[in-house]
């Protein structure tokens, strides 16, 4: 596969995407460049044994995580959550900050 498939959002996801876009724009003063939807997963059999190379039987579920992505104008990464109970994370990614 040469390209990542783009799947249209259903009505429930569209509502969540609008809320996420609004939050992103308020926080970052820019529109997101793209969104990612990460499906949830449940292991029917073999919980935590896949780390050791054993077989598992995972299955995607309806619950998912939506992520809005935008390019920073500096060497920083900022991670925020729509739910205020989670703290914002802001990190300097410049080489000098890792010395």
TrEMBL record:
<dbReference type="InterPro" id="IPR019741">
    <property type="entry name" value="Galactokinase_CS"/>
</dbReference>
<keyword id="KW-0067">ATP-binding</keyword>
<dbReference type="GO" id="GO:0005829">
    <property type="term" value="C:cytosol"/>
</dbReference>
<dbReference type="Pfam" id="PF10509">
    <property type="entry name" value="GalKase_gal_bdg"/>
</dbReference>
<dbReference type="GO" id="GO:0005524">
    <property type="term" value="F:ATP binding"/>
</dbReference>
<keyword id="KW-0547">Nucleotide-binding</keyword>
<dbReference type="InterPro" id="IPR019539">
    <property type="entry name" value="GalKase_N"/>
</dbReference>
<dbReference type="InterPro" id="IPR020568">
    <property type="entry name" value="Ribosomal_Su5_D2-typ_SF"/>
</dbReference>
<dbReference type="GO" id="GO:0006012">
    <property type="term" value="P:galactose metabolic process"/>
</dbReference>
<protein>
    <submittedName>
        <fullName>Galk2_1 protein</fullName>
    </submittedName>
</protein>
<dbReference type="GO" id="GO:0004335">
    <property type="term" value="F:galactokinase activity"/>
</dbReference>
<dbReference type="InterPro" id="IPR014721">
    <property type="entry name" value="Ribsml_uS5_D2-typ_fold_subgr"/>
</dbReference>
<feature type="domain" description="Galactokinase N-terminal">
    <location>
        <begin position="24"/>
        <end position="70"/>
    </location>
</feature>
């Amino acid at each position: 596969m040469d390209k990542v498939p783009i799947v249209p959002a259903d009505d429930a996801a569209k509502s969540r995407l609008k809320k996420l876009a609004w939050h992103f724009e308020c926080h970052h003063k820019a529109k997101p460049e793209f969104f990612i939807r990460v499906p949830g997963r449940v292991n029917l059999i073999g919980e935590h044994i896949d780390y050791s190379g054993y077989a598992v039987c995972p299955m995607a579920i309806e619950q998912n995580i939506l992520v809005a992505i935008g390019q920073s104008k500096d060497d920083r990464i900022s991670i925020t959550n729509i739910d205020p109970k989670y703290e914002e994370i802001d990190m300097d990614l410049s080489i000098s900050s890792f010395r």
